[in-house]
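Researcher: Quick test of sequence recovery. Tokens follow.
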């Protein structure tokens, strides 16, 4: 078999993953979907630079580079592998740091309280990870095994379509499964204090 034929067959087996993306300049801070949205952003944000709040939850996962955010009166400097969770109706914004965030790549998940409740049928409070009962931090860094597991769920959720999946409605059903897995693990991990950013690592504004 010729080399080019082998490469073509390899690409056919592993086609390019199509990820939903939002431009860094986009300043939309509301959901178009009434339940949840997941997308990737690259580069330093030019939107979300003023204090604002949502009536839904926000999760940011740093895929690569660095990213800084101000939540209430505290600034979080995040690096690859870090998670930032923002509760509903909490003031926050992107925090500009010269020369730091130009190469940032992150996955952002927005989800409503109603959607989280529907995932568990009332059997568990999947929104607990967003509740800042411990005021030390709302940023986390998990052990690599769990980080990669959560990252896998987020990437699948951010995919605009499932490859080799022709069953109508399959993407929606799978997304509910990935969301359930993501938030069950996330709540368990966020409950462990050793996964919190230490207070000394978070400079006050």
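Model:
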């Amino acid at each position: 078999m010729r080399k080019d034929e082998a490469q073509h067959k390899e690409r056919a087996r592993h086609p390019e993953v199509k990820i939903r993306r939002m431009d860094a300049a986009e300043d939309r801070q509301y959901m178009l979907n009434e339940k949840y949205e997941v997308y990737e952003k690259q580069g330093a944000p030019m939107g979300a630079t003023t204090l604002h709040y949502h009536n839904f939850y926000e999760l940011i996962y740093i895929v690569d580079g660095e990213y800084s955010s101000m939540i209430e009166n505290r600034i979080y400097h995040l690096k690859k592998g870090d998670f930032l969770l923002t509760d509903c109706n909490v003031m926050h914004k992107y925090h500009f740091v010269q020369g730091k965030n130009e190469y940032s790549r992150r996955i952002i998940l927005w989800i409503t309280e109603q959607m989280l409740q529907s995932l568990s049928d009332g059997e568990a409070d999947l929104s607990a990870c967003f509740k800042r009962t411990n005021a030390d931090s709302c940023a986390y860094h998990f052990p690599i095994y769990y980080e990669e597991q959560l990252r896998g769920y987020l990437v699948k959720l951010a995919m605009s379509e499932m490859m080799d999946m022709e069953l109508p409605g399959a993407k929606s059903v799978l997304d509910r499964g990935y969301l359930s897995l993501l938030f069950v693990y996330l709540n368990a991990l966020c409950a462990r204090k050793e996964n919190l950013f230490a207070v000394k690592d978070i400079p006050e504004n």
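The helical segments are 3-13, 113-120, 144-158, 170-190.
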